[in-house]
Structure formats: C-alpha cells, structure tokens
Amino acid sequence: MATSETTQLYSEPMEENLSIPVKLIQYVKNTQEMVVIDRLKTDLPVIDEYLTQQQPQSFLCLPILHQGNLIGILYLQNRSTSGVFTSEAIAFSFSTSFAPKLPFLWKMLDCISKSPTILKTWKQK
C-alpha cells in the first residue's frame, strides 16, 4: 500500500509478467485512453491472467501525458469495492491529492527513465 511516507516503484520488463495487468497496460499505452472497469465487466481486450487471478472489484488505468507524449501509466485497483473510480472521484482526487504531489512524481519519473531496470524505493518527506 502506498502512503505519504513510503512509495515503492518497480521497473521491470512487462512481457510475460504475471504480477501486473500486462494487456491492460499495453492497451492504455497504445490508445492513450483512460480505462475504468468494475467487476471485470468489459468488452475491451484487457482481461489477462493477472486480472483473472486478482479479481479487483474496480480498477483504473490512466496514461500520464506530458506535452502530448506518454511518459507513464498509473494503475490503481480496489479488491473489495466496485464503483470506486467514478469520474467525480477521479477529478476530486486529482485536484486535492494528486496535483500537489506533481513535483515529486516528475522527480520519480525522471529517475526511473535514467535507470529503467533498477528497483527504486522512495521515501517522501
């Protein structure tokens, strides 16, 4: 779980990785569109072994764009509650909690891009 004190970032190859939703991330990478799904109900080609095993009740996958270029993808899931990622909740979250942390996130993304195969652990102060 990410908290304001500790955030762990992992950078590893995606292909055949069973610890992340590869099909979903690839779909968002290719379309650069946000995906929100409840109870795995979708016609999109994004359900893979990870999602089938984890069975999240609600998840969000969001492209992070800077000047029109994809610089990252954010994946959030909730295993216990569906309907968590509504457009109102997403807008509220970005305006109240995400936006103030943008300098920290830019620094993380910069470090990851410089050493993409190293596990990074950040402690935010």
Number of domains: 1
SS field, number of helical segments:
4
Q: Which value, in Å, is the CA radius of gyration?
A: 15 Å
CATH architecture: 2-Layer Sandwich
Arithmetic mean pLDDT:
74
Element string (H = helix, E = strand)? EHEHEEHHE
Record the strand order, biggest sheet: 2-3-4
Question: What top-tier CATH class fits best?
Answer: Alpha Beta
The largest sheet, given as strand count, sense and whether it forms a barrel, is: 3 strands, antiparallel
Note the gap between the termini.
17 Å
Q: What's the helical proportion of residues?
A: 25-40%
Report on this model:
With 125 residues, this protein is an alpha+beta fold. The chain has a single domain (6-119), classed as Beta-Lactamase. Helices cover 33% and strands 25% of the residues. The chain contains four helices and five strands, in the order βαβαββααβ. The strands form two sheets. The chain has a three-stranded antiparallel sheet, with helices on one face. Strands 1-5 form a two-stranded antiparallel ribbon. A hairpin with a 2-residue loop joins β3 and β4. The longest helix is centred in the C-terminal third of the chain and has 13 residues, at 102-114. The protein is globular, with a radius of gyration of 15 Å. The chain starts with 5 loop residues before the first strand and ends with a strand. The relative contact order is 0.20. The model is unreliable at 115-125 (pLDDT under 50).
